[in-house]
Amino acid sequence: MLRVRINQFANNEAGAGTIMGLLWFALLVGITGMAVDVTDGFRNRTMLQATADSAALAGAIDLPDNAAAVATAVTYAVDNMGTELNGSVLDPADVIIGLWDGATQSIDQMAAIPDAVMVTVHRSAANANALPVNFLRIMGLQTWNVTAQAVAQRFIPGCLRDGLIAREMVDMSSNNGFVNQICIHGEQGVNIQSNNYFETGVNVSMPDMAMLEIPASGMDSNIGLHDALRENYLDPRMVNHITEITDGFLGLNSVMASVVMPSYIETNWGVDEVGTGFNFANALPHHIYHVLCPPMRNLVLPAGILIDQIVLIADCQITIGANSTVTDSVIISRSGPNPGPGQLNIGDANITVAAGVQLGKPDNCAVGGGVQLFSNATIHTSSKTKIDGVQLVALGDIFLGALAMGINGISAQAGGNIFMTSNNMFGLCSGGVGGLFTVDYYRLVL
């Protein structure tokens, strides 16, 4: 009897499906867990990456103040991923500041002048905020460790240091030469006539090649143009800061004053307010002059004058007389007396440089000697202007006259167009234009 029961039990297949069901159930839970929990992990990884990117960029804006950069990065991390749901995703120790080396993809924390912020954000056991899983718990997995990293760098595009950059178009006539790696960029395109020369290393760029305007024979008649062409986006942001720079010199913006004040200016003397009749042949070096212009009057500097080591700000149009020399100086034309917000009119003011003027010292851009011209409207240079280490910034257009042989170091940014006439030679000096007023740009490099 016992043997019969044992045989019956051994041969009984009832309940076999339960075992297979359990196996299939475990497999189904595993697949579901992979679908749900892994997807959730990738979703959080994406959130962490976006948080790392924003925190690194925000921190980089505060450089070179390292403490402020760290604090800002942490604040942005909290704003993006609140601590209530995510815990603390960014510890101050995980914000690294230094000099970015693109070749080695590393950051030098010992650099004296940092330019980058590296941020590493976590949802991990080490941070006590590991990402919990749901279905995969049945397989023994309780949490994910998810990490993301980003590096943001503060930089100035090379073309903004050494080139001709227009928010609208760059329009050049014929028989111009471009050498020594100079850049030409128009955000709304570039118009090039025939018989221009572009040396190897020169860049001619615009956001889309469809914005290039040339004659039918343009590629053949403009030597080197084909190799110089690039697609690029580049906004001349300096044109947005002319008023801030002006206020810095006039003592209305102490932060900007500390940034833009040249070493040749003695700030203890304050600002000398003069009229349009002031004889700038008697201007004292190391001073700031603010010209208060009566209605319908403009400032005309006499021919052959030497302007050296001063800042000249006029509330009206400025004309620099023929055959004059300007070195180590800043010249600013405003739109009118005490312009307020919203009152600028780019047709109201300009700077006109008469024929034969020397702007900057012809010293291959050695330290010192450079000139900066800022206009809330337009800048016009006449024929045979000599340019050596000069920065031109205009809210409106910039006009560069003919026969300007020996443009040796120029940084021009126009909120409108840049027009170039014929028979000019544009190039850069070794080391580029010195003494520039610049606006930082920021990018993610990792």
List keywords for this structure.
single chain; about 450 residues; alpha/beta; 17-stranded parallel β-sheet
Short description:
With 446 residues, the chain is α/β, with parallel strands linked by helices. Helices cover 23% and strands 30% of the residues. The radius of gyration is 32 Å and the shape is elongated.
Account of the 3D structure:
Helix 2 runs antiparallel to helix 3. Strand 1 (95-101) and strand 2 form a beta hairpin. The strands form 4 sheets. This protein has a 17-stranded parallel beta sheet that branches. A 9-stranded parallel beta sheet has the order 14-11-8-31-29-27-24-21-18, with no helix packed on it. The radius of gyration is 32 Å and the shape is elongated. The protein folds into 2 domains: 12-155, no CATH class; 158-439, no CATH class. It is built from 9 helices and 33 strands. The chain is 23% helix and 30% strand.
